[in-house]
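A quick word before the example. In earlier lectures we treated sequence and structure as two separate objects. From today on, think of them as two lines of the same record. Here is Tetraacyldisaccharide 4'-kinase written that way.
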Amino acid sequence: MDKKHRKIFWPFSFLYHGIIHLRNLAFDKKIFRSASFDLPVICIGNLSVGGTGKSPMVEYLVKILYERYKVATLSRGYKRKTKGFYIADENTTTPDIGDEPMQFYRKFRDITVAVDEDRVMGIPKILNDRPETEIIILDDAFQHRQVAAGLNILLTACNNLYTKDFLLPAGSLRDEKKSSRRADIIIVTKCNKNLSQQQRQNIIEELNPGNTQKVFFTTVKYGTPYSLFQDESRDLNIDDSVLLITGIADPKLIEMLLDSKVLLKKTLRFKDHHLYNESDIKKIKEEFSKMNSSRKIILTTEKDATRLSSFKNHLKDLPVFVLPMAHQFLFDEEMSFQREVSRYVEEAKN
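And the structure line, produced from the sequence above:
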């Protein structure tokens, strides 16, 4: 948003700031209470409205923890068609729990994946239904202070640091910048993989973390695309033509990847968490048919794949591939991050 248009929204941002400030003050002064639980609770979140890589970070934590502990994830279940508490099982669909929780469930069948708009009520329900649970990971819950997590991990995108952003609607922040002080760990995501030590230091100085706050840096690591409906995978090739389907907050990195990897790319952008319908599928098929190439594919994100999979009968004969992504830590600090997480878990369990 340019400065001219941002000025129009300043009055609304000031009003929003007043509301958020009073709410945070009420929690700080113990007027509003935060619930604590007798097991490790890790919160993943951000200060902005999206696009920092929360879901891949939840998956990263699950990967490093689930072989040693009984792990559960708890999300709101944005845009799901159910209400209240819900635990995923083999009959669960994306409309039941939302796209991101469905993504967790498909990848990690040995963990508990639950959704509840009320995290305070959701945690006891997980412990009642799955009493063996040892760790709960809260997805996108940093601003939901009703639960006092033991370890708060705050994400911020390298190209849009919260320190340089503005509150809604003039910017993309949904919480005060000073709320970052509640984080135990700050992760700067979506960095250039060649980020220099000087750039790293400049960003740390910009964030100005507290004495006990740890700052880490990650870049996006894309995996080999795999077929949505077939047991098949394939590398991207310079001769490929790709129809990219995205319903995520920020597809720019994927578009940049394709610009450097394939011959031709066309993007169909939908809103974040877009619920696809038959009209959308028809448009996808029409756009794909227009591409004049013998090496053409449809490519989408893992989050979009959970929503597109319900249209298998319409898409199963097309080459629909899914592009996996993950966080890759920079500056050889992955083990240091894992030690921070493990230290918290062990201390919280004892």
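Notice the following. The radius of gyration is 21 Å. We will return to this example when we discuss secondary structure assignment.
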